[in-house]
């Protein structure tokens, strides 16, 4: 194999592919990326058997072939020759030579025949979405996904269609986030549950791009395809919790405040919160008082009064301060609405005037 290509272009693809590699001591081939030629293109593949990725970039192909090389080593080599614009790579007997104007580097490769195949998804269940909309949907909810694999259904992001919207949902059973994006494209008959670790990689790879993504789903796999990238991932074969039944239909207390005011208050208050990140809201519309109190027996305590608009019944409720921070990071509006339905029911947070994002956080009772 022999080819010439732009160093920066191949470096970006190798770096992205290397994140997917398996870090597997029993199967060393999973630690590598596969480099293959195809007419006037270079194909770079990586997989950890959960996620597979394929990049296609332009190159001058002088001799076709393939080689598997350490993704981390190849990436580090390319990042440490920033003054080189063009590189030439030749492979003989699985020995890879990287040649530039001023450097000659030799890297031992592996037999490419041992590299696992990346499945090609064929399915009638598919839809197309702009990459930045897809990323917005995922990033709006992923902080609410459970990280542990004990319950795979909630260590994930759930995506489904309803009416003329695409829904992104995540929950760890202590909080829940739902993002709704208007969508009038192709219809799919069922939703898809993508593991947390896998969808994180999908987002990282597509985030720099601004392209349409064709998403195909089956009961076991999902693929995301753009002009230059192909990703496939395992999906969870289970039933996502019927979360809509816990979405409150009404509220007994409502507070409207500037998002930045709450952020500033939380920055101070959480310095004094306990190991459960507990902060206490005391809201009394009749007395026109809204305060956030925190107490840590080892450090001290604080009370902060906020300027808000409020209505409804008085309430005292303890919430997780970190959960509130996570939510505020994805709300785009300057003002937020927090709705309560009693001290033992979840609080609901939205951006003022924005019905596309809903965030629930459960009260702390300890």
From TrEMBL:
MF (Gene Ontology): 3'-5' exonuclease activity; DNA binding; DNA-directed DNA polymerase activity
SUPFAM superfamilies for this protein: DNA clamp (SSF55979)
Organism: Candidatus Nomurabacteria bacterium GW2011_GWB1_44_12
The keyword DNA-binding is annotated on this UniProt entry: yes
GO biological process terms held by the UniProt record: DNA strand elongation involved in DNA replication
Cellular component terms (Gene Ontology): cytoplasm; DNA polymerase III complex
Ranges of residues in domain DNA polymerase III beta sliding clamp central: 129-242
Pfam family, one: DNA_pol3_beta_3
Residues in the signal sequence: none
Location (main, coarse): cytoplasm
Known partners and oligomeric status: Forms a ring-shaped head-to-tail homodimer around DNA.
Annotated Gene3D superfamilies: 3.70.10.10, DNA Polymerase III, subunit A, domain 2 (3.10.150.10)
Keyword entries, A-Z: Cytoplasm, DNA replication, DNA-binding, DNA-directed DNA polymerase, Nucleotidyltransferase, Transferase
Keyword flag Translocase: no
Compartmental location: Cytoplasm
Annotated ranges, domain DNA polymerase III beta sliding clamp C-terminal: 245-364
Protein name in the entry: Beta sliding clamp
């Amino acid at each position: 194999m022999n080819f010439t290509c732009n160093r920066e272009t191949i470096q970006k693809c190798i770096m992205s592919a290397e994140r997917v590699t398996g870090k597997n001591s029993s199967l060393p081939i999973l630690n590598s990326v596969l480099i293959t030629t195809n007419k006037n293109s270079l194909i770079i593949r990586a997989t950890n058997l959960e996620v597979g990725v394929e990049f296609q970039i332009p190159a001058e192909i002088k001799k076709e072939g393939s080689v598997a090389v350490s993704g981390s080593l190849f990436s580090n080599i390319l990042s440490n020759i920033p003054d080189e614009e063009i590189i030439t790579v030749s492979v003989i007997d699985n020995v890879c030579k990287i040649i530039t104007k001023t450097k000659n580097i030799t890297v031992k490769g592996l037999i490419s025949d041992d590299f696992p195949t990346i499945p090609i998804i064929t399915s009638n269940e598919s839809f197309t979405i702009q990459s930045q909309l897809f990323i917005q949907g995922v990033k709006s909810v992923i902080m609410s996904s459970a990280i542990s694999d004990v319950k795979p259904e909630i260590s994930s992001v759930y995506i489904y269609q309803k009416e003329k919207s695409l829904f992104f949902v995540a929950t760890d059973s202590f909080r829940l986030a739902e993002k709704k994006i208007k969508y009038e494209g192709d219809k799919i008959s069922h939703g898809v549950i993508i593991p947390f670790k896998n969808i994180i990689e999908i987002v990282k790879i597509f985030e720099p791009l601004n392209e349409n993504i064709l998403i195909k789903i089956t009961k076991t796999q999902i693929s995301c395809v753009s002009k230059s990238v192909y990703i496939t991932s395992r999906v969870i074969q289970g039933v996502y919790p019927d979360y809509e039944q816990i979405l409150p239909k009404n509220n007994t207390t409502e507070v409207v405040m500037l998002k930045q005011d709450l952020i500033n208050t939380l920055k101070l208050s959480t310095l004094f919160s306990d190991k459960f990140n507990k902060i206490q809201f005391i809201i009394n519309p009749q007395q026109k008082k809204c305060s956030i109190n925190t107490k840590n027996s080892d450090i001290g305590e604080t009370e902060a009064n906020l300027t808000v608009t409020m209505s409804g019944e008085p309430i005292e409720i303890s919430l997780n301060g970190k959960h509130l921070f996570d939510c505020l990071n994805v709300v785009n509006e300057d003002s937020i609405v927090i709705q309560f339905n009693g001290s033992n029911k979840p609080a609901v947070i939205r951006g003022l005037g924005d019905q596309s994002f809903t965030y629930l956080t459960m009260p702390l009772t300890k």
